[in-house]
Amino acid sequence: MTSIADAVAWLDERFPPRLAEDWDTPGLAVGDPARPLTRVMFAVDPTLDVAQEAVAAGAQLLVTHHPLMLRSVTSVAATTAAGAVVHTLIEGGCALLAAHTNADAARTGTNDALAAALGMTSTAPLVPDVVDPNVGSGRVGIVTPQTLAEFAGVVARALPPTAGGVVYAGDADGEVSRVAIVGGSGGSYIDAAVAARVDVFVTADMRHHPASDAREAARLRGGKPYLINVSHAASESLWLAATAADMADALGVTATVSTLNTDPWTGHVPSTH
Ligand SMILES: [Zn+2]
Predict the structure, then answer these.
(1) How far is the CA of 223 from the centre of ligand 1 (A)?
(2) 221 Cα to the center of ligand 1, angstroms
(3) How far is the CA of 128 from the centre of ligand 1 (A)?
(4) What's the 192 CA to ligand 1 centre distance in angstroms?
(5) Is 122 in a helix, a strand, or coil?
(6) What are the pLDDT digits (tens) for 186-212?
(7) Are 37 and 97 in contact (CB under 8 A)?
(8) At residue 139, what are phi and psi to the nearest 5 degrees?
(9) Which of 41, 56, 81, 209 is deepest in the core (most CB within 10 A)?
(10) What contacts 111, CB < 8 A, 6 or more positions away?
């Protein structure tokens, strides 16, 4: 009989916890490792809707990208947001595990899946791990030469639909081939993307000043790297299906991916007049 502990061990081997950032809190947050496991659900975010979906599906383990409790908490009362999720999961007999920055860094994780979906080849870490240079933060690779506008379309079609969509900065007709990506909030990796001499840098949550400063600095180098800004949740969703399929094969469990879109933005009005 497969147990939750077996799933934890399988995930720890695939996404080694040592690869997680110091501030991160990956691993089992709710649940008893000794409990039997027949059904697993994967999702980006442990929202209450996702927890309820997992329980309704009969999952005994919910694997999410983002941890439920990233900062210290002093209460999991059901009247708190995180506590409501904890209560839903425990009462529904469902454990919760996060594979977060360890899944970003490891092979077959968040960034490898995003790179593959964008058609990137010759892919390597943008910032290699000091111990194992085959893993690390972000990815850099090559795509078939195309315009920035065309590649932004590739990015938009590769990701699940979100209200915010995909925006880009730079010459729509400029050619891109060398690409850097960082799934999630990767704006702080702009310097690494510049050092890697990429044509375009794809990430989420890029704020005004880092983006504006990067574009102004790029003018002095002929305009690159261009920027493509996407939904944070969408950019971190593409590794879930393959991980679920592989876990199902390895452990003989049923593993599915949540059908819910957890991007917090739900509406979009184009600001054209
Ligand atoms: Zn994230």
Answers:
(1) 28
(2) 31
(3) 19
(4) 19
(5) strand
(6) 999 999 999 999 999 999 999 999 999
(7) no
(8) -145, 150
(9) 41
(10) 104, 105, 137, 138, 139, 181, 182, 183
